[in-house]
Amino acid sequence: MVKQEDTVVAAPETVEIAIVGAGIVGLATALRLAAEGREVLLIDPNEPGSGASFGNAGTLAEYACMPVGNPAVLRQLPKLLLDPDSPFALRWTAFFQLAPWLVRFVRQSLPAATRANAMALAGLLAEALPAWEEMVKEADMADLMRRNGCLYLYRRKSDFAKAAGGRALRAGFGVHQEVLTPGEVAALEPSLPPAGACGLYFPDSMNVTDPKTLMRRLLDAATARGVSVAQAAISGLQVEADGVRLSGSGLQVKANTVVIAAGAQSRALAMQAGDSVPLETERGYHLEFPTEAPLLNRPVCPVDLGFYMTPMTGRLRVAGTVELGGLAAPANPRRLALLDRGVRQFFPPLGRPSSEWLGFRPSLPDSRPVIGPSRGSRKVIHAFGHGHLGLTLAPITARLVAELIAGRGDPDCLAPFAVDRFSA
């Protein structure tokens, strides 16, 4: 995706701030800190922005305060896990590894926990789009953004009825949402087949027309501000009296502060910093289909299928579903086939997909990211676990990390995302 030889430099022996992970959260944080005059080293074994940051649905979902675990999902969980074609799947070979996480997930899906988690997310999401608009200006990305809303499509009245709790919860947090009649859905998206479907429209939502180019722009803006990039897999983290030592695959560097933003790969480093985090992996998939003209005007999510159809430059991306199953297993062809069958319910003439992708979302049982200092040392800052909201929350996470490092901001606003919540 991004050519390493264009960006990688020899890592310094010492640096003010090292960021482990060059996905969207790491890139946004690097840019923010560099803009404040900090010396920053960005470290990743892969191409910057090449993981889930590249392969997502491209939506900035400021409305998405409903956690993945909630009473509606809990009621359907046995069916969802046992049906191989459901939007929520489990690789049963990983069941024993996942069992402790699933127990926590069930507890976080109860009504009181759901509301607390939604409240925390809503507070963070309230500043997500303003933070994005700041970053868009900083990295010259306005041409890659569309503010045309997002549409949830309900093809069955029963699905719409089951989602009443989510609509009420979002309304209580001030999320702008509009219920649409079938005619209003057709007016917004005339290419969709008539199905008598009602819709839920989020008019303030934004989407990205080309995630690959967006990541390149962010990287270019960061390096123009002086950010260094090193290609290395960090396996060792040791807090010392005068800093934090990082080591791995030919790299040794000492930083005054380390930011762990390694997404689904963050758990082992957090453990070395002294924090046990119940981080697991959601395996996300996408297919892309070339299109001469856009088939849709905005991202559309058929809620019964659990994926997004997002118009991007020269193509339609079909992305989503949840598969629990770790980092090691190869792509599951059933999940890709599920996406293919699903999108053809709307656009039967689509040809063969031009690309397919598997990536890894860092998933926590309560759907809240971890943002804040390690319990072991304030020299280590966590910024991972954003689940489905990494793209949406990257700039606001970057702002919070920068404020934390500078000693600014309100500590209370980070309390819902603190790592010590898992020790309760």
TrEMBL record:
GO molecular function, one term: oxidoreductase activity
Keywords carried by this UniProt record: Oxidoreductase
GO cellular component: cytoplasm
Pfam families: DAO
Source superkingdom: Bacteria
Gene3D superfamilies: D-Amino Acid Oxidase, subunit A, domain 2, FAD/NAD(P)-binding domain
UniProt xrefs under InterPro entries: FAD-dep_OxRdtase, FAD/NAD-bd_sf
Domain FAD dependent oxidoreductase: start-end pairs: 17-404
Protein name: Cytochrome C4
Organism: Mesorhizobium prunaredense
Organism lineage string: Bacteria, Pseudomonadati, Pseudomonadota, Alphaproteobacteria, Hyphomicrobiales
